[in-house]
Amino acid sequence: MSIVILGAGHAGLTLAREIRANSKTTPITIISREAIRGYYKPSLSKALSVNKTPDQLVMKSAETIAQDLNAKLLSNVTVIEIDTECNEVRGLFNSDEESSVLTIPYDSLVLATGASPIRLPIERDSTTELLLINNLEDYEIFRDRIQGKKKVLIIGAGFVGCELASDLISSGYDVDIVDLCEWPLQRSMPEVMGTEIKKAMTEQGVKWHLGTTLASVKTDKQNNKIAYLSDGTIIQTDAIISAVGLVPNTHLASSAGLTVRRGIEVDELSQTSQPDIYALGDCVEYQGVTLPFIAPATQAAKALAKTLTGEETALELPALPVAVKISACPTVVCPPLNKKGIWQVQGAGMNLEAHFINEEGAMSGFSLTGQCIAKKNQLVAECLPAFY
């Protein structure tokens, strides 16, 4: 039985590795619209402070991946159609030398197409660039644009925005953060915690512009970016990074007639509405929720690999805490999937522990800062699983 995987990010490569661990002979084909390289995506938001170049972030080349997995790798192929009647995918291969259409048959198809950064409708001219950091290619462009520069403005005070700000400030840059929220990481923690993170990062030099948005930006004759906020504030900067979240890549799935809501809808076996087609990772919606984190994708890959190799295995997700890489204030969050409930906070100063108590009185999420991050494993054991 041949398995074709669309996407060579963490979800796709982890699935291939797990399939190969379960079966030495199952044919595996991995298709990617980008060059296939093995790297850890969360490292992109902390690579500057540890002085890592894009090449240094690559852990495995395509040749090594192909050899390790005994898999066929197709880089630089843009899949343009999924034919569910013939069980085929069609893709356009592009290189400097040639362009051709490929037809790849499958017995089981897995969509691991990931998610793309949300692009805000900010008024700007054609010379004014908004940087995005969602893959290694983006990181290469980002490093090039800020080389020799001093000031960076970040749109977004969520996971990625705070991590990038921490990385940049630790690398000697001046950082401004703009967000409509009232405190950092507002969707994942109570106000008292977000306030402590804001205070700690302010002491490092981060300047916050919360409760406002970036309305427009232009580039002056000296190549400075002039940002105009909705509250009337004007900021001069050298580069602007948008880090306001991700939207699942669902176009292929939708075109193939699969059920798509915010993400590709899957059941407990990671199967879509179409037989023989599965999905996992950032492109997927589980029980009405998207989970754009590494741990859920890893868990889903392990379960799906067993299903695809003959042992039907339902996905079970335990509580999955995420370490947020903020040097000024160590932080761990385990966001509740259902937002109906209240936060209960204990501790003082930066050392805070917060439990999210749902309507039934059970802990369904938690957040930790400062020295309290040492309680992560204890709270994982006490917290309700994400799905059960």
Short note summarizing the structure:
By secondary structure, the protein is α/β, with parallel strands linked by helices.
Largest sheet: 5 strands, parallel
> Structural class of the secondary elements?
alpha/beta
CATH topology (fold) name of the largest domain = FAD/NAD(P)-binding domain
CATH class of the largest domain: Alpha Beta
Structure description:
It contains nine helices and 27 strands. Helix 1 (10-22) links the parallel strand 1 (3-6) and strand 2. The radius of gyration is 22 Å and the shape is globular. Helix 1 (10-22) packs parallel to helix 8 (294-308). With 388 residues, the protein is an alpha/beta fold. The model has no long low-confidence stretch (mean pLDDT 94). It has a five-stranded parallel beta sheet, covered by helices on one side. A five-stranded antiparallel beta sheet has the order 23-24-27-26-25, sandwiched between helices. The chain has three domains: 3-116 and 247-308, FAD/NAD(P)-binding domain; 119-242, FAD/NAD(P)-binding domain (3-Layer(bba) Sandwich); 330-382, Enolase-like, domain 1 (2-Layer Sandwich).
Record the SSE blueprint.
Layout: E1 3-6, H1 10-22, E2 28-31, E3 38-39, H2 54-57, E4 58-60, H3 62-69, E5 72-74, E6 77-83, E7 88-94, E8 99-105, E9 108-111, E10 115-117, E11 123-124, H4 136-146, E12 151-155, H5 159-170, E13 174-179, H6 191-204, E14 207-210, E15 214-219, E16 225-229, E17 234-237, E18 239-242, E19 246-248, H7 251-255, E20 264-266, E21 277-279, E22 284-286, H8 294-308, E23 322-324, E24 331-334, E25 341-348, E26 351-358, E27 363-369, H9 376-382
Parallel strand pairs: 1-2, 1-9, 2-5, 9-21, 11-15, 12-13, 12-18, 13-14, 20-22
Antiparallel strand pairs: 3-4, 6-7, 7-8, 10-19, 15-16, 16-17, 23-24, 24-27, 25-26, 26-27
Helix pairs in contact: 1-8
